[in-house]
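Hey,
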Amino acid sequence: MLFDKIRYNKGTLFETEWLSLKQIIPSYYPLFSCIADRCQHSCCIGWEIGIDDVAAARYRAVEGPFGERLRASMTEAEDGWQFLPDEHERCPFLNGQGLCDLILTLGEEALCDICDAHPRFRYDYADRTEWGLGLCCEAAAALILSQEEPVTFSDDGTLPPDPDEAAMLRLRANAIAVAQDRSISVAEREERLLRSVGGRTPTAPEELAEWYLPLERLDPAWETELNRLQTVTPAPSTVSDAASEQLLVYFLYRQIPPSLEDGCFKERMAFAVLSLRLIRALAAVSNNTLFELARMYSAEIEYSDENIACLLTKLARYAAA
């Protein structure tokens, strides 16, 4: 049942090895479904679409006119095969109705890994694989931020044999417990998380804007939103405690695991709080919905290694000042 929900690396040896591991998902994960032609921000527009080797070999073997179209739409770059976007940065198989011609012709099982998995993300550990949904997808953002009850995870409470992984997961679980402590205010939860790692973040809208405006940007609309923090008088907050909690838990769940690679556990804990504060500040000055602001934030920040690294460095310096 879980594999039906996840579908990843179909038909490879890895699939057998992967299925032997524990699979950890948030409670809302099985509720997700792509909204296809109803999507206002298609993941088939404006993104580089890499093709895994298995799919590339399959596409090169397709016969007939559609096979010719496939091969004409592919290019081999230094880091592997890619689809060539059109002049409007659309995937060549995204048709005028907002549907995928590749799925319509060959079936969903023919999708390359990146298209099959998006907006899902995963982390592999010694004895488990964790899955989540990225806020960069408008359907995922609406699903996650509409949850009224605390999110739970399909975890039996055991820890992996690797001591570093076990330590990180234990600390993250404690942080998520603080983020979900509804006996105290969201503001107190934020401060407890920051105090636990000796962290600080800016809180004033103008200072938040100064942190984010110099970063790499994909969409000019994001700059417009950030500029509002410096020019528009904020309205009373419209972000509910439940939505704030879901944002905080999402960022803790997704952004803490990479600390195993970069050693920035403290900074990534503070990043979760910073992200919530920035999105909440934007919601007080923007005409966009919270769902859309969270989607924009994720696309602009979470999917840019450079932006994440810059913010982690800023947080380390800010805490030390």
